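pinned: reference chain
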Amino acid sequence: MAGAGFCPRCGSLRAAGAAFCATCGLAFDDTPHVPGTGWAPPAPPPGPPSAPPGSPPSVRQAGTAAGGSTPPPRRPLALWMGGALLGAVVAGLVGFVLGGGGGPTEDPVATVTPTAEETGTTDPSSPSPSDGTTARPTPEETYAPLTTGTAHVEVSGDVTATLDLPFLAGLSEFEWPDFVWLDFRSSDEGLADSITIRGLAEPGSHPTYDDGETWLKLSLDLFSLEEAGFWVSDSGECTIEYTRVDWPEVEGAFRCIEPVEGNFETGEVESPRSVTVTGSFTASP
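pinned: its structure tokens
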């Protein structure tokens, strides 16, 4: 049996009395080959080249010689990096699925706001009253002849008079949404005392005006006077306050300071009389 030494193939330290190399498995045989006997040492299996005799043992050889276990072979760095990348991708996919796709979800039932036509409440095109209330509903008929009502009129200044005038049916009307023609007259035949309001009809106070397209006018005829006359306002001399505009009913009051006096024949008065006119009115179908 051979003594201690180094493996002739891998250079590992040979344990005393060992028949095989603990590192590369080479069988030790100290019997020299005798030509012609038909025996030769078995061919060594392929392996790493042997270290030159006398070279120091490798880390693996030193660990084996010291009785330690052979360190595991190192895996390539690319293999470790690929495994880490694959783990990160899998973790991301799991989080994406469990988190609902990473974005906000929408309610599958859409919220639909009904239109004014569907609810039957108001006409979107109808104007809102100037007093801040909600828009009035559009009626089925947008024209209403007015047949009943009264007007109380008080005139002071250069002319004085107190009148309670009935409503004149046939000429008065309310056109949706904001136009009225109100005619109050002492008689429906011949010349009579009367007061007429025509034009804009919206809740609130409005001065008389005429801009060529829309208007609000007041006129007063006094034929019962010894010297008849009429007064008109379309430039702010009168203020008309609608206290109620509830289709097709309307109520309100008026106040005029020095409306313009006219002449029935020439339309102009050389010495107009100064008057103040106040009163109230109501009208309905």
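why pinned: The CA atoms of residues 165 and 181 lie 15 Å apart. The radius of gyration is 58 Å.
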